[in-house]
Amino acid sequence: MSARRVLVVCALLVLVVAGCDRPGTGGDRGDPGVGRSPADRDRPASMELAWQEATLPLPPGPAGRLVLRDAVSCGGSWFLVGGVVDAAGETRPAAWSSADGSAWAPVPIAARTFYGRQHVLYAAACAPGPTGGPDGGRVAALGAKNGGVHGNPRTATWVRDGAGPLREVPAAFELFGGPRAVSVARLAAGAGGWLIAGARVDGAAVWTSPDAGGFTLAEGLPELAGDARGRTAAYDVVALPTGWLVVGSLLPAGGAALTPMAWTSVDGRSWRRTELPVGNGRGRAERVVLRDGVPVAVGAVPDGFAVWRADDGSRWRRVGGFGAVGPGVLSVVGLTVVRGVLVAVTGDGAGRSAWASTDGGASWRPVPTPSMVVDGGDTALTMAGGEDRLVLLADDGRSSHAWWGRV
């Protein structure tokens, strides 16, 4: 995006509804307008936000470049996680808090292990306290650093109470790592405590905790883990009013293509499995949120990105789709909701893009971002929603930036 363009969109929030549907995009229909070319009329409408860049102070310690990975809105305040990479390529964990998403302050870091002092924090969740906001609740994060003889991720959790420091929670190596480790993906907080979704060698697995002060691994669980039907993997989790919803995939026994899956549980131990509907049975459910209490999942399928919704909380149906097949592997790397607007961040092998839906996932339009980010390598693009605004994080592999915009 040009500098002139950034100045224009920073002046106001404009919702442009124009153009016609293009197969596979689910774009809204509208008046094509006067003077628009046929090519313009074929493009899906876009939703443009007045992005304003936020300044993130360098945390205490050696100078270096910031790496921004995740943000969460918590009771009206914000929490952002990532790390710092110094001139020698060494990393250390970093976090920031904000009352409004525009002015940020570093959060003190209390690392306790050799690898913890080198972590980059990549996922965060929040349980608001009675006073609201991070200062009145509890924030937890996941961090990792590749190390050891095999260079595998050394993963741990972090927790912050109120306005105190973000503290590393030391854990036995095989809790998250070891010979059975595959992935530690995302975490969520709910009425039943905390849950992390991921995978072990026998399939999807979860880690549970009453307070994020220490997690217990649950692997090999019936219906959740792999079995004679195939191997499973879990990518994301959201808290339900009574329990948990995890999304992921199944690689059928003897098959070569993944199938999108969802699992529900009241206690994190007993799980119910559901295969999400997709025309040829191929795809992944990669991110999930609740929109007005209704679960919405988004994932990659052969013809782009699919959207599923469980209007009654359990029976899923495909309600829409968007995007186009790119030159590489398709992926959904972010999904959030703000004021009923769903915002997804996707990769297509070439670049990462943002999309928005105002009707529960049935139709989608592109969301222009102030930074172009290639897909792959040490890059990131994600968004978090809260109250009336979005926070956008972008890392192009050379520098990281944060913006916010009202919806």
From TrEMBL:
> What InterPro entries does the record point to?
Sialidase_sf, WD40/YVTN_repeat-like_dom_sf
Q: Where are the transmembrane segments?
A: none
Which Gene3D superfamilies does the UniProt entry name for this protein? YVTN repeat-like/Quinoprotein amine dehydrogenase
Return the protein name.
BNR repeat-like domain-containing protein
